């Protein structure tokens, strides 16, 4: 059943660590690597506001720093009834470093949507255009 997807559960658990001091909007993310490992992240805000980093990028950078390079899916969880999709900056990073991930959106009780990165970021700018 959708609500019990381990990746969504991991994102939900990671959300508890969010440092959402200014917005109060806590987000958790969980990335599934090609070998089945799960790496999580949460949003981290600070007093400049602009240096805030989203849960998705924390998860991706944490995974890269641990040596992971290939990914299958990402789950993003917020306490909202409508889906909370990755922001534009996160779409760029997820696409460039994660490829055409399946993106699973969820809240505290279940899933709110499933998408593919190629649909969330049509006509991307990426390394292919630098060749
Ligand atoms: N945020 C995320 O972490 N991921 C998203 O997909 C949407 C937005 C964070 C950034 C900021 O800390 C808070 O949510 C409100 O924008």
Task: Name the overall outline.
Answer: globular
Q: Give the number of DSSP strands.
A: 5
End-to-end separation in angstroms reads 44 Å
The percent of residues in helical segments reads 25-40%
Average pLDDT confidence is 97
What molecules are bound to this protein? tetrahydrodeoxyuridine
Rg, please? 14 Å
Largest sheet: 5 strands, mixed
Strand order of the largest sheet: 2-1-3-4-5
Percent of residues in beta strands: 15-25%
The succession of helices and strands, N to C, reads HEEHEHEEH
| Helix segment tally | 4
Detail the poorly predicted runs: none
Structural class designation: alpha+beta
Describe the structure.
- The chain has 131 residues and is of the alpha+beta class.
- The protein has 4 helices and 5 strands; from the N terminus they run H-E-E-H-E-H-E-E-H.
- The chain is globular, with a radius of gyration of 14 Å.
- The N and C termini lie far apart (44 Å).
- Bound molecules: tetrahydrodeoxyuridine.
- Tetrahydrodeoxyuridine binds next to helix 2.
- Tetrahydrodeoxyuridine binds at residues 20, 23, 25, 27, 43, 45, 52, 54-56, 76, 84, 86-87, 90.
